[in-house]
Amino acid sequence: MDWEGLIRTFLEDVIGFLPRLIAALVIFVAMLILSALAARWVRRAGQVKIKDPETLRALSLLTRWGVLIVGVIVALDQVDFDVTGFLAGLGVLGFTVGFALQDIARNFVAGILLLIQQPFDIGDAVKVGEFTGKVVDIRLRDTVIQTWDGELAIVPNIEVYTRPIVNYSDRPLRRRTIRVGVGYEEDIGRAAKVFLETVRQIDGVLADPAPTVMVEGLGDSAVELVIRFWLNQETHSLIEVHSQAVQAIKEAAEREGIEIPYPTVRVIGEGAG
Fold first, then answer.
1. How far apart are the C-alpha atoms of 95 and 153, rounded to whole Å?
2. 238/182 same-domain check
3. What are phi and psi of 163, to 5 degrees?
4. Which of 51, 91, 189, 245 has its CA 20 to 30 A from that of 24?
5. Does residue 265 lie within any of the structural domains?
6. Per residue in 116-140, is it b (16+ CB within 10 Å) or e — as a string?
7. How many domains does the chain have?
8. Are residues 91 and 7 in the same domain?
């Protein structure tokens, strides 16, 4: 056996491989540093928009590992490692595992998109699908909504992301509508004036936009009036102002002798033959 030839060949291979190994190490170290910088940037940028520290930490780790994985793939490619074949092998396993975990992955991605787009914040009053209430937590897999009945609804983020979202807290000004039926014998103009003046005097009702009273239609037993007014929900409770308005309108009708009739049904009978 030609040991001298074997040693010479080995040294030539090592010398030829050494530059690629050094390049791979340099790339890996550079990506290691870059991953730390990227994770730090995500933490700093996310502190402004993301209130949950656990969510922020998860996003930071996801960023760091994502950059590291890219660095490892590029580094292995420098030393002629069959990255494509390796990834293909992982793909078969990944497909099997991914199929089982697809719901978790979809909710995770939807959670990241919600945190980036921010259609609502913690504390906002929202309507998502069948749930209406206050957002108490936004997590990577789900969003927690406390309904007005005090129940906690844990909604998967994929459902939150794919359904229409109504954010009641996104704009401070809100309009409320109250419908009142007035008897046909009443002076509709006078009734509208009384109700309009009543609503104007309620604390929290804005002068601009001004309240309005309009005739909506003719019902079976009453003329339907629609009273609309605006309030600033940052300074006044929407529910309380609405309740005060309903009570004040009823009291004004009683005081001014304006009839608010009950629905009536006429029953026509035939005498026995």
1. 32
2. yes
3. -105, 155
4. 91
5. no
6. eeeebeeebbbebeebbbbbeebbb
7. 3
8. yes
In a domain, 269, yes or no: no
- Residue 27, token pair as written in the block: 């790339």
Residue 141 lies in a domain: yes
Whether residues 94 and 135 share a domain: the answer is no
Q: Note whether residue 193 is domain-resident.
A: yes
pLDDT 10s digit of each residue in the chain, 273 long?
556 666 666 556 656 667 777 777 888 888 888 888 888 887 777 666 666 666 677 777 777 877 888 877 777 777 666 656 655 655 554 554 454 456 777 777 788 778 777 888 888 889 998 899 999 988 878 899 999 888 899 999 889 988 889 988 878 888 999 999 999 999 999 999 999 999 999 999 999 999 999 999 998 889 999 999 999 988 888 889 999 999 999 999 999 999 988 765 555 555 444
Q: Exposed/middle/buried for 159, CB within 10 Å: 0-12, 13-18, 19+? A: middle
Q: Are residues 123 and 61 in the same domain?
A: no
35 plus 58 within the same structural domain: yes
Instruction: Indicate the burial class of 205 (C-beta count within 10 angstroms; 0-12, 13-18, 19 or more).
Output: buried
Three-state secondary structure call for residue 218: strand
Domain of residue 248, residue span: 173-256
